[in-house]
Amino acid sequence: MKAEGYPSVGHYTFALHHPHPTDNPQITSKYGYTTEVHNIVTEDGYIIELHRLRASPKFGPANASHLPVLLMHGLMGSSADWIFIGPQESLPYLLSDRGHDVWLGNARGNRYSRNHTHLSPEEREFWDFSFDEIGRYDLPAMVDHVLTETGHSKLHYVGHSQGTTIFFVLNAERPEYNRKFELMQALAPAVFMENLRNSPLRFLAQHEALASYLLAAMGIFEMKPFPKDWTKLVSAMCPDFIRNSLCLELMHAVTSNKYLHFGTHGFPMVLNHLPAGSSIKQWSHFGQEVMSGHFRRFDYGPERNRQQYGSEVPPNYNLSRVTVPVAINYGLADELVHPVDVRLLAETLPNLVTLNQQANATFNHMDFLAAGNVKDVLYDSLIRNVEQRQPW
After folding, report:
1. Residue 24 pLDDT > 90, yes or no?
2. H/E/C letters for each residue in 29-64?
3. How do beta strands 60-61 and 46-56 pair?
């Protein structure tokens, strides 16, 4: 459905939203956190939804002197990714409890950001974007909105998977944004992808062009989020007493991964919120990264590349232009982001602060969001990093 009543492209607005039972604002409000919904319009007309934790039931309103913290989800995810494991251990709640102003972003095309000033999600043109456009347009719109609302000139950024990809796209392509970030903390950074270990996804990457062609021929341009009734189905098929056995094994089989650290809250929340939706072109772009070994713009083929970029191959994103201090965190058992590719990223960045390998050799891609021990092994250190870089 096309959006009505929004300002012209390039402006932003605050709008009320009426969430369904699994929406992020309602979940956070259930635990006593004051939550706001902000809708902003990107330069190319997409309407992006931001969720803001304004006050904690323990701490009260956020400390206005603290730099705001913006968290960004990965592919097929949403702002809800960050609150899988409840108020005692999820990063947004922990930050809010310590007086930080926390903002949770949503990329175009997910369940919270399916509006445009003049395009409908039913139109092919709506889905003509990859992580390139999310980095060029969505992220800067969110950053500018947060800074305008808070009155700060900088913010802290935490990204998971594609949430890191778009950060590097933005600051490589629009380097004036480097000055707006105090620190970037990358969780499982999806930048160089050549050593992807997940067999089904590698197979799809090898046949990316054919798969995209066939899906387009069938009129399929998006990966849809699960419908609301999926929550009821999950509860019926995976009650508490089998949730960590049969259903977890099914998830292992589907993803080709072993999530050994999921807490009791992590698994049902993941199934309730993922997938949250994306474009097929996002998947295609990541597939191209796997096969090329490069971190570069979308490959349209030699003829269109010449028209678009002036060369037969797409240009690389120039990571030497990313001057923001970056702290990287990765896991040895991550089948999507290989340690070799992470180390290549670390060697390429001009301002790497730290490269942190998770001590447990079985720590995987989704463990950064849903592991039962993630607060102790990761989040406490992320929060310390935020608090050590404040304008006291």
Report:
1. no
2. HHCCCEEEEEEEECCCCEEEEEEEEEEECCCEECCC
3. antiparallel
Alpha-carbon distance of 56 to 254, in angstroms, equals 37
Nearest Cα residue to 45 out of 112, 131, 125 = 125
Name the residue among 52, 48, 97 with its Cα closest to residue 70.
Answer: 52
Give the separation between CA 329 and CA 344, rounded to whole angstroms: 13
For residues 101 and 318, what is the distance between their CA atoms, to the nearest angstrom? 31
Question: What stretches of the chain show up as alpha helix (H) in DSSP?
Answer: 24-30, 91-97, 131-133, 139-150, 162-173, 199-206, 208-217, 230-237, 246-255, 266-273, 280-292, 302-309, 339-348, 367-370, 374, 380-388
In terms of DSSP bridges, do strands 155-160 and 69-72 run parallel, antiparallel, or are they unpaired?
parallel
Q: Is 161 a catalytic residue?
A: yes
Of all residues in the chain, the percent with pLDDT exceeding 70 is 80
Q: What is the mean pLDDT of the chain?
A: 85
Q: How far is CA 179 from the centre of its chain?
A: 21
Q: What is the pLDDT of residues 289-323, one digit of tens each?
A: 999 999 999 999 999 999 999 999 999 999 999 99
CB atoms within 10 A of CB 121: 16
Query: From the candidates 66, 152, 160, 365, which is the catalytic residue?
Result: 365
Q: pLDDT per residue over 366-375, tens digit each?
A: 899 988 899 9
Q: Considering 161, 278, 279, 284, which one is annotated as catalytic?
A: 161
Burial tier of 210 (Cβ tally within 10 Å: 0-12, 13-18, 19+): exposed
Q: Which of 126-130, 204-208, 266-270 has the highest mean pLDDT?
A: 126-130
Q: Give which of 50, 80, 61 is closest to 143, Cα–Cα.
A: 50
Q: Give the pLDDT confidence of 134-188 residue by residue, as tens digits.
A: 999 999 999 999 999 999 999 999 999 999 999 999 999 999 999 999 999 999 9
Cα–Cα distance, 233 to 250 (Å, whole number): 15
Of residues 220 and 244, more confidently modeled:
220
Nearest-5° angle of CA 42, CA 43, CA 47?
25
3-class SS at 275? coil
